[in-house]
């Protein structure tokens, strides 16, 4: 009874604050506050006239010092009428009841994927020789490119876990939501995929991509059909505005295990970004999920090295993945990779975790970016620089870092997108649910933060019900795949998407 009363009190305080927050006094000078000064714990700080709660974040307001929704955002915008008393250390965020969490905007949802072909003859040929099997495809990743003078381009990956996908990197063609299928076209064109790994100058099996600040798409091609490496894994980089290849790097046999390694995730750190940099210096970090390692690629020196230790391994205690009541076995290593943003005044770290483990780990960039630290294959190399940040007690999938230092990850229990402020300890009281939906967020395979045409950052998600694909229980009469989005500011501040 006490907890119900407490929840009702929080909700009433929220409504009261929302009402008074629309009163503003433009003549009053506006002190400058960042998001770090705006976030407070709901339960510890909720008191009349001082703090009010949004679904995930609490903010200062009072009748004498009202604050409007429009006067603050995650990007250090100005906020009116806040006295110095509001500027105090940030207490932990807390998880609120499920119905307070944001519902993401559905961009596309579908029961199946609709692959386009250069001709009907080619479609029938691919069906007859097994290169195309509509029942054996699973979209995994999503990324978007929004030119200032054009429409948002949505890209998805469809890895070749076996024969089935006629191509493994595609651009979405749909003009709007469809329930029968997500319409795809091969990217950059069909010729890059048609050989099915026979031509290693093409693309064999793309797991994930990353579009960087230089408008380049980094493509991680695992080089395998099923578990056979028909080609060496490679990184292929395209200028997304011209759709032309600008860089290619084939990984040497010293950094992967032939016919065993499966490279599934790529994160990119541009060390000379625009507008002042020339986009020549970059490091790429790659997850080898099945031979349990990280691979680092130094673009300017065209050199790569392998990092393997106890933090890159799975745990048998977390090898059973249960999503929406359906379980399957997966003993995979590193899955999610994220990087401390520039400009936070923090030591820059590489954050990573294995999907079949509950440990969140990190290592300083200056350590892992130094190839001489890992010249000799040794699981104890620089081990003292690797840190167990904390444990979740549950698995999570891919991760993404916001410019403000919030690490996002797709959790399995709850089935939710969960955030964590990297300035705090990685404990349950410091993790907060941003969006929770047991139907639409089943297995988040793709997670990106990208600017829209106006430069506003948005969170994009691809969910795919992978548990049904791997357990063989797919039902193509139901919606299986979804592409969702929400403004980053709205998501972090608990506002409608």
UniProtKB/TrEMBL annotation:
**Pfam families (UniProt xref):** MRJP
Q: Can you tell me where the transmembrane regions are?
A: none
Per the UniProt entry, the signal peptide is: 1-26
Q: Where in the cell is it found?
A: Secreted
Q: Which GO terms describe its cellular component?
A: extracellular region
Which keywords are on file for this protein?
Answer: Glycoprotein, Secreted, Signal
Q: Does the keyword Signal apply?
A: yes
* Family under the similarity heading: Belongs to the major royal jelly protein family.
What this protein is called in its record is Bee-milk protein
- Origin species, per record, is Stomoxys calcitrans (Stable fly)
Organism taxonomic ancestry: Eukaryota, Metazoa, Ecdysozoa, Arthropoda, Hexapoda
Gene name? Answer: 106083809
